[in-house]
Specification:
about 475 residues, about 5% strand
């Protein structure tokens, strides 16, 4: 018995370490989407006193920012990028949680190993790892939501209720895609309630299920109102971006989403009458499937996901929940493995039809330079060996992430930056300026020195010119790039 437990524990620890190492391998070349790179840059600026604290505390999404801020000092100490370290921890922890759940469901060690390998090789899981901490937090949110659905519907236990209710704020404050999933879950929450409890405490149970989510949103609005004097400061930019598909104001897009959810809630009571008399498994599975389908539809309609893979990636966590929570049968492990294998093939076919979305991950996996890097990433690599660089880093935090450190940057919180703005005179050894982009607001450097990008300044020479960014330097620091 002891040897059996030791083998199981070694299996769990080994898979967790392998997942963490694989995450670090994928992340070794700063392979992050633009929003993740910007988030990591804001965390670096905040931890080093290079950004306004009020603006950072009221920024959305708060959860990845807080976690990155916690991890940043340790990442700097060991020389690993904070997003890579956080993603590795989340990926390893997720795989450990999956294996532990399967062992508690009385899967044999061989079946656990095979299913864990299928999960590790799943294109959606690899895509989530390559996409950074926000995508991995989405997997964690869907995983906890699914566990809460199955557990609370079957037993009505308090721990399962807590897991279910806390998964919604976790999703909502991970990113905008997670918020869509959380909103999509609202109509289906009643399907997770045991039949006896639903018949006797309908309103009370629904209030308890929604309270953590509503309280978290209200609290974040209060924080934004106190710090930025605008309770919706963290929502408006995101909805403005989401509204591009229809050229409508953000509040109209929000109203459309609300109307869709309310319309779904009108249909759900009839669904409850049909499902409440069925087995708990069917109700929980129906709620999980309905949530993911509604979320995928909203993401597609609003255009909030960069690709089909990004919209469907969280479903791998839902599949993991179902595989671990299916009823005990003699042939369960074989059936579950077969279904997971079929799901892997389907996901692989979807991935191959969206090869452009995974090209950066493939480049990083095989050690080649990432194709199609952003201008901010190229500028950050150029500035990595230079100190005393004046740049509006708060407006371009992705540059800080690519550079790897805030030391040597002159940002808006530094006295030298403030003096240059007030006197409208440049004195920094290096100044990074971005070209004016029609339809976008300029950063502080471009706004105060509108002719700097095109004409430079007295005593400065052009040392960098690439994809809308220029660096003017007083010293002879190299040829134009």
């Amino acid at each position: 018995m002891t040897a059996h437990l030791t083998r199981a524990r070694l299996t769990i620890i080994g898979f967790g370490l392998l997942a963490a190492l694989a995450s670090l391998w994928l992340a070794r070349a700063n392979l992050w989407p633009a929003d993740t790179a910007a988030l990591a840059g804001r965390a670096m600026l905040g931890m080093n006193g290079k950004a306004d604290l009020a603006t950072l505390l009221a920024a959305y999404p708060p959860l990845p920012y807080v976690l990155l801020s916690i991890v940043e000092p340790f990442a700097a100490l060991i020389g690993i990028a904070a997003p890579a370290l956080l993603t590795a921890g989340l990926a390893g922890g997720f795989l450990v949680a999956y294996i532990v759940t399967m062992r508690r469901a009385r899967f044999e060690v061989e079946a656990v190993v095979f299913l864990a390998l299928l999960f590790c090789l799943h294109p959606f899981a690899l895509f989530s790892v390559a996409s950074g901490p926000e995508a991995m937090l989405l997997l964690w949110g869907v995983w906890l939501y699914g566990l809460g659905l199955f557990g609370f519907r079957a037993t009505g236990g308090v721990n399962d209720l807590i897991t279910l209710t806390l998964s919604l704020p976790l999703l909502a404050f991970t990113n905008l895609e997670g918020a869509v999933i959380a909103v999509s879950a609202v109509p289906f929450l009643l399907l997770s309630v045991p039949t006896q409890m639903l018949q006797r405490f309908y309103v009370s149970v629904y209030t308890v299920l929604l309270f953590p989510l509503l309280f978290s949103i209200f609290a974040f609005c209060i924080v934004s109102w106190i710090l930025l004097h605008d309770p919706l400061a963290f929502v408006t930019p995101e909805f403005l971006q989401a509204a591009r598909w229809s050229s409508q104001p953000w509040w109209l897009v929000a109203a459309a989403c609300g109307a869709g959810v309310i319309g779904t809630m009108v249909i759900v009571p009839g669904m409850i009458l049909r499902v409440s008399t069925r087995r708990p498994l069917q109700a929980a599975a129906g709620a999980l499937l309905g949530t993911m389908m509604l979320a995928a539809a909203l993401l597609a309609i609003l255009g909030l996901s960069s690709s089909a893979i990004g919209a469907l990636a969280p479903t791998v966590a839902a599949a993991a929940v179902v595989s671990a929570r299916w009823p005990i049968e003699r042939a369960r492990a074989l059936r579950t493995a077969a279904l997971m294998a079929i799901g892997l093939l389907i996901a692989l076919s979807i991935t191959l039809t969206n090869i452009a979305a995974i090209r950066p991950a493939l480049d990083a996996l095989f050690g080649s330079r990432i194709a199609g890097t952003t201008p901010e990433a190229d500028l950050g690599e150029y500035l990595a060996g230079r100190d005393d660089v004046m740049i509006d880093a708060i407006a371009h935090p992705a540059v800080v992430t690519a550079r790897g450190a805030t030391r040597g940057l002159i940002t808006a919180t530094d006295p030298a930056f403030t003096v240059a703005i007030l006197k409208r005179e440049l004195d920094a050894p290096h100044v990074a300026v971005r070209q004016h982009q029609p339809g976008e607001s300029d950063d502080l450097v471009t706004r105060i020195f509108p002719a700097l990008y095109a004409q430079g300044a007295p005593g400065y020479r052009l040392t960098y010119d690439h994809q809308g960014w220029r660096v003017w330097s007083r010293t002879q620091s190299g040829d134009i790039q």
